[in-house]
Amino acid sequence: MGSLTVNLKQSSLTLYEQLANKILNDINHEKYLPGAQIPTELELQRSTGYSRSTVRHALRILVNKGVLVKIHGKGTFVQDGTSNETTRSQFFSLTNNVENLGASISTKLVDIQPTRASKEQAEFFGIEPKTPLLKLTRLRYVDKSPFCVEYVYFTEEFSSITSENLNGSLYQVLHDQFNEVPAGGHKMFDITKASTSEAFLLNVERDTSLMQITDFVYDQNDHPLHITRQVIRSDKYKYELIQ
Q1: 211 forms bridges with which residues in the sheet?
Q2: Strand, helix or coil at 228?
Q3: Using one digit for the tens of pLDDT, what is the confidence trace for 17-50?
Q4: Beta strand pairing call for 68-71 and 75-78
Q5: Cα(133)–Cα(115) distance, rounded to whole angstroms?
């Protein structure tokens, strides 16, 4: 395997940059081969003495650079070019994506409710499992035809968003009211079956196969911003990634 670089400054490195460089060096010296799983966050904490946030930030650097890839339910692996999870993709909101296709998009807020963070959600937000989260459920339309049920998860610091108009671009609200801008993240694609409520909202049969896209989104300061899960009628919408 050829040598990988991340272009980090070599002077005054932060702890997470030092750790990212160490992991990168291990990869370049073939301690971890392409497709190999690297140690877990907990194992790296124990072996390096670094904090959980430092370890997570170091791994995030390498994931965003395309050196590592996180695979849901399995772990973090050295990139080998075969993962179905995207990295370093140009980031667009669903609104922008649809408008780029020349269609009109509209949104209807269906529900707002508190929920508890799953293990995966807690890991992304850097909180404890079962910590309260805010869950928005929205129905998206293209040219007045329902095509996507969207579930958006925020930490409690964004609880005041419930007083805003959420029947439009969520990113416009985040920008105008919270000075937050989505600046990157990673996506996971898979297939799911329509639940009873999703079938009703999307006007399909229960258990119809739907495209599922889960976004883990960071803000302009590289802090976790939100998680969004979209279940989409693939007969109505094709998702295009620009890399």
Answers
A1: 191, 232
A2: strand
A3: 889 888 988 888 888 888 889 999 999 999 999 9
A4: antiparallel
A5: 5
